[in-house]
Specification:
Length: 90
């Protein structure tokens, strides 16, 4: 099943994102369940959140992934969501 992880950064936490980005990207590349991923950008082009599409067996696996993300461990996110997603085009 596909699950969209949506994470919105806490205001003023760009440096937290920058500092933890290498570990986060490595996690994305090596966990084996990321179908696609990328940052949200604000009006000035600065990163302000994340969208990650996970290919998982169940929602528990998606929740475990989200909790282990280096960004989550660093306290970057103000709000997160995990939503089952159905790919139609692309």
């Amino acid at each position: 099943m596909l699950v969209a992880f949506i994470g919105r950064d806490k205001p003023g936490h760009l440096q937290t994102r920058v500092d933890n980005r290498p570990a986060h990207v490595e996690y994305l590349k090596t966990c084996g369940i990321v179908a696609m991923a990328g940052p949200f950008l604000d009006d000035s082009g600065q990163m302000c959140g994340s969208l990650v599409v996970l290919n998982v067996d169940n929602m528990d696996q998606a929740r475990d992934w989200a909790e282990a993300d280096p960004y989550a461990k660093a306290g970057l996110f103000e709000k997160t969501e995990l939503i089952q997603w159905n790919k139609v085009i692309g």
